[in-house]
Design goal:
Number of helices: 3
Strand order of the largest sheet: 1-2
Structural class: mainly alpha
Order of helices and strands: HHEEH
Shape: flat
Distance between the termini: 78 Å
Number of domains: 2
Largest sheet: 2 strands, antiparallel
Radius of gyration: 24 Å
Length: about 100
């Protein structure tokens, strides 16, 4: 009888884990589908994101003081923006303003 109880709890535990992994997978699929729709609108997205709050990342609501765990994302986001800006430069500038390639 005790063995059945242990096996039953294991089955429930495995079932919960499978359920959680399935939910995570479905969430990821929804995110990817959303990115595909954004790409179809010809919107360049920056993967790095930073969530800042006035109460936590600004002293006295005026002095920028990001929390330590935000610093890595704050460093990565401008790099992503600059990379996209360079990649999309040719789409923004008229042809006569673009440098001629040496190739």
């Amino acid at each position: 009888m005790a063995d059945e109880s242990i096996e039953g709890r294991r089955a429930v535990s495995v079932g919960r884990e499978v359920h959680e992994q399935t939910l995570a997978l479905v969430g990821e699929l929804h995110r990817l589908e959303g990115e595909r729709h954004v790409a179809e609108l010809k919107v360049a997205t920056v993967r790095s994101q930073v969530v800042l709050t006035l109460g936590d990342d600004f002293r006295d609501y005026t002095t920028f003081a990001p929390r330590p765990h935000q610093e890595q994302a704050l460093d990565a986001m401008p790099d992503d923006l600059v990379a996209w800006g360079g990649a999309l430069r040719q789409l923004r500038a008229p042809a006569e303003e673009l440098p001629v390639s040496a190739a």
